[in-house]
Design brief:
mainly alpha
Length: 249
């Protein structure tokens, strides 16, 4: 029964963080916080999928830059742009309001502003270049590393940073921490890092520093984290990982 429950929780994590078909829960679905342990493992799925697109593009003779752009497009389709939407909303809110209340109000607005547009352009452009430079060098393990670590960063912020408000996805996913929540993602990250090689340590350090920076900024600007902040953490730490891997190689 425990294994069945874990499978259901992992399916819920896949449904939450991707648009991949994962079945349905006709009755008694797991509570959202119970799926948090599987968030980093979703990174194994997205990382493997991204590598598959990159490898296929290379096998067809496409240049690394074109392959990288195809990977980014496939990633957006795979996640439904969920995390990028969080990044855009966070950029608009954190820099577009004069008080925490106003910033949170802006982040709730479905419309995108100039800060959000610029954040997306800069982030996607940098990721395109970094992925094109490092993708073929780090190979399959590097894609897994970035996928797992960026979602482990989401879990870290969700668990350790207070809520900015009592509703929304950030609040719904909040739950108790503990070894049971952390060890699956930590184990997956360790294996991916060892397979990636020396550049992994540098990449993880940069990703950890950026996670801390975003968390501190969110606390200063709005008092804590929201679902949008979690999405921004995933996108920005993923970008940081690729930039670090490109610099290391």
């Amino acid at each position: 029964m425990r294994a069945v429950r874990r499978i259901r929780e992992a399916r819920l994590a896949l449904m939450l963080l991707t648009r991949l078909p994962a079945g349905s829960f006709p009755e008694d679905p797991p509570a959202l916080p119970e799926s948090r342990w599987a968030w980093p493992l979703v990174g194994l799925v997205t990382g493997a999928s991204s590598w598959g697109v990159f490898a296929l593009a290379g096998a067809l003779g496409l240049a690394p830059g074109i392959a990288a752009l195809l990977v980014i497009g496939a990633g957006v389709l795979l996640t439904g742009g969920l995390h990028h939407d969080g990044l855009a909303d966070s950029a608009d809110g954190l820099w577009g309001g004069q008080s925490p209340e106003r910033r949170l109000e802006i982040m709730r607005d479905s419309r995108i502003g100039s800060y959000g547009v610029l954040a997306l352009i800069l982030t996607l452009g940098l990721e395109w270049q970094a992925l094109g430079a490092a993708g073929a060098v780090v190979g399959f393990p590097g894609f897994l590393l970035v996928g797992v670590a960026s979602r482990l960063a989401m879990l870290l912020v969700s668990d350790l940073v207070p809520l900015a408000r009592g509703d929304g996805l950030g609040a719904s996913a909040r739950g108790a921490g503990g070894l049971e929540v952390w060890w699956p993602g930590a184990l997956a990250l360790l294996v991916a890092a060892l397979a990636t090689g020396p550049g992994a340590l540098w990449a993880l350090g940069v990703m950890a520093a950026l996670t801390l920076g975003v968390a501190r900024l969110a606390r200063a600007k709005i008092g804590g984290q929201t679902g949008d902040i979690l999405g921004a953490v995933q996108v920005l730490t993923g970008l940081a990982g690729w930039l670090a891997l490109a610099a290391a190689h």
